[in-house]
Amino acid sequence: MKHLLSAGDLTRDDAELILATAGEMRALADRPIKKLPALRGRTVVNLFFEDSTRTRMSFEAAAKRLSADVINFSAKGSSVSKGESLKDTALTLEAMGADAVVVRHWASGAPHSLANAGWSRSTVINAGDGTHEHPTQALLDAFTMTRHLASDGGGLDGRRIAIVGDVLHSRVARSNALLLQTLGAEVTLVSPPTLLPYGVGTWGVETSYDLDSVLPKADAVMMLRVQRERMNDSYFPSVREYSRRYGLNARRMATLQDHTIVMHPGPMIRGMEITADVADSDRSVIVEQVTNGVAVRMAVLYLLLGGSEPAIGADETPTTEETPA
């Protein structure tokens, strides 16, 4: 596999290889020096046309921990703000010798165009395209669930996952629905009718408008942010009404099974889709998702750019000029 554009492109074997490799990379988080020489001499470009904190910094940390050279590109202050096309930007990166391009773009399908139009020979990784997909977020979510819910080294087969909130505008929900089913989980999307996308019936998931009926059966609950910046109409009566019907609070958390975990891809709107006491509770793995995101993105970069040998092997000692990311 040369590119990672969609969670739907991953077979179960592909996904399990990435998660297993991420498990090896995750061990680095507890080491004094969090670095491997695996991608020394490679160049990774973070090409971000939308604002991002967690994803951009996560990919940057992942690439640096693998000893790659990193170039961070932001549309603001670049030639894109002067009208440069995606094609010309891609040709510029090609001329600079980029080995991998991590793309976040406001237009759904932009990473696919970059990968398939012949503008560049670089590996392309989709870091979120419009309301379409965010495959590495789905991978880190699956990795986090596996660490908490998989028994005896097994997978997520038969586990019930509830994804709650603004599914219509969520690329995270789409990628998770695809990947979690590939890994054998049962997915239920919980949302107001106005925030479920057209054609969701073809996704192979269950849908519900009643959060309280779904929560007691869930093994993991993923809350989604209401993406007001993508809304040009009123999708629910008020913030208070949305929170009353679809927000996760202490009362609802008390109905969860003892082992159930609470997740959120971030950024959170505390007090709307999730209350502060739930976000900061022992059930919450939201901060852990960020740590796991670096490990998963290390695994993706390693496997796409160099993974012909074990990720953590004999030659792990950084050169003297290398410092921890």
Automatic annotation (TrEMBL):
Enzyme class label: transferase
Pathway annotation: Pyrimidine metabolism; UMP biosynthesis via de novo pathway; (S)-dihydroorotate from bicarbonate: step 2/3
Aspartate/ornithine carbamoyltransferase carbamoyl-P binding domain boundaries: 2-146
Alphabetical keyword list: Pyrimidine biosynthesis, Transferase
InterPro entries, alphabetized: Asp/Orn_carbamoyltranf_P-bd, Asp/Orn_carbamoylTrfase, Asp/Orn_carbamoylTrfase_sf, Asp_carbamoyltransf, Asp_carbamoyltransf_Asp/Orn-bd
Pfam families with a match to the protein in the record: OTCace, OTCace_N
Top-level taxon in the UniProt lineage: Bacteria
GO biological process, one term: 'de novo' UMP biosynthetic process
Residues at which L-aspartate binds: K82, R171, R225
Entry's EC annotation: 2.1.3.2
Binding residues for carbamoyl phosphate: R54, T55, R104, H134, Q137, G266, P267
Annotated TM spans: none
GO annotation, cellular component aspect: cytosol
Catalysed reactions, as listed in the record: carbamoyl phosphate + L-aspartate = N-carbamoyl-L-aspartate + phosphate + H(+)
PANTHER family: ASPARTATE CARBAMOYLTRANSFERASE (PTHR45753:SF6), ORNITHINE CARBAMOYLTRANSFERASE, MITOCHONDRIAL (PTHR45753)
Function: Catalyzes the condensation of carbamoyl phosphate and aspartate to form carbamoyl aspartate and inorganic phosphate, the committed step in the de novo pyrimidine nucleotide biosynthesis pathway.
Quaternary state and interactors: Heterododecamer (2C3:3R2) of six catalytic PyrB chains organized as two trimers (C3), and six regulatory PyrI chains organized as three dimers (R2).
Entry-linked NCBIfam families: asp_carb_tr, PRK00856.1
Name of the protein in question: Aspartate carbamoyltransferase
Source organism of this protein record: Nocardioides marmoriginsengisoli
Gene name per UniProt: pyrB
